[in-house]
């Protein structure tokens, strides 16, 4: 009855799992390289304007997520609104880095 059904279901799941692990993975397609390159380029862009490269780590959280222009706008505003776009921690200072 119920034990046989459970055992049959377990055997079916085991067989399915084994088949999935034995299937060879497909080789990367020729289209994957341009996508990876594009993603890497986007990773370097400012989180706010998405145009210029990130160059300003925020203190104290140390997130590198803003370009100089967006960081300048952030720091020129009221201190209560100086929040990291990533973690929302209050920003006390910035630092210029050259990548």
Automatic annotation (TrEMBL):
The record ties this protein, via PROSITE patterns, to: ZF_RING_2
Q: Would the keyword Cell wall biogenesis/degradation be found if you checked this record's keyword annotation?
A: no
* Compositional bias ranges of the Low complexity kind: 15-36
InterPro entries (alphabetical): Znf_RING (IPR001841), Znf_RING/FYVE/PHD (IPR013083)
RING-type domain location is 46-88
Where is the stretch described as Disordered?
1-38
Picking any one GO biological process from the record gives: ubiquitin-dependent protein catabolic process
Pfam families attached here?
A: zf-C3HC4_3
User: Keywords, A to Z?
Assistant: Metal-binding, Zinc, Zinc-finger
Q: What molecular functions are annotated in GO for this chain?
A: ubiquitin protein ligase activity; zinc ion binding
**Protein name as annotated:** RING-type domain-containing protein
Q: Which organism is it from?
A: Vitrella brassicaformis
């Amino acid at each position: 009855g119920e034990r046989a059904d459970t055992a049959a279901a377990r055997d079916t799941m085991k067989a399915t799992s084994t088949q999935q692990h034995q299937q060879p993975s497909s080789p990367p397609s020729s289209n994957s390289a341009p996508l990876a390159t594009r993603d890497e380029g986007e990773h370097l862009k400012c989180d706010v304007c998405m145009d210029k490269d990130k160059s300003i780590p925020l203190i104290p959280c140390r997130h590198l997520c803003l370009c100089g222009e967006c960081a300048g706008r952030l720091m020129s505003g009221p201190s209560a609104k100086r929040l990291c776009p990533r973690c929302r921690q209050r920003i006390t200072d910035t630092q210029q880095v050259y990548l």
